[in-house]
């Protein structure tokens, strides 16, 4: 570095679409993910989910919950689907690393989060019958 040069530090930030999706979520989820994105670039895939999409996901077996009982169905949404950016659906190790980061940030903030690959919260990922890796929800 030449004396006097200023190294530019670029922090990750949400795209306009991710920001809009996150704004449909519970303020606790917004707080967690606004902190997460400072350190870990990510995309918000979904926040609030309307009836038509919930019904479709149920029919496709992408959800076990019927409208209006899903955490995504409330206003504000108590669930968010997020992935590390760039999104790579085949990289499950990176998703697990990302999820651990989210759960750790939430714990540090005093916010209880349930992850869709550890529904029972026992930190054993091998005892689940339904895996939804991008899914995170607040627990009241």
Write the layout of secondary structure elements.
Layout: H1 16-23, H2 27-36, E1 42-46, H3 51-59, E2 79-84, H4 92-109, E3 113-115, E4 135-138
Antiparallel strand pairs: 1-2, 2-4, 3-4
Helix pairs in contact: 2-4
Overview of the molecule:
By secondary structure, the chain is of the alpha+beta class. It has a single domain (16-138), classed as Muramoyl-pentapeptide Carboxypeptidase, domain 2. The chain has four helices and four strands. The chain has helices at 16-23, 27-36, 51-59, 92-109, and strands spanning 42-46, 79-84, 113-115, 135-138. A four-stranded antiparallel beta sheet has the order 1-2-4-3. The radius of gyration is 16 Å and the shape is globular. The model has no long low-confidence stretch (mean pLDDT 94). InterPro entries: Zn_M74/Hedgehog-like. This is Putative peptidase.
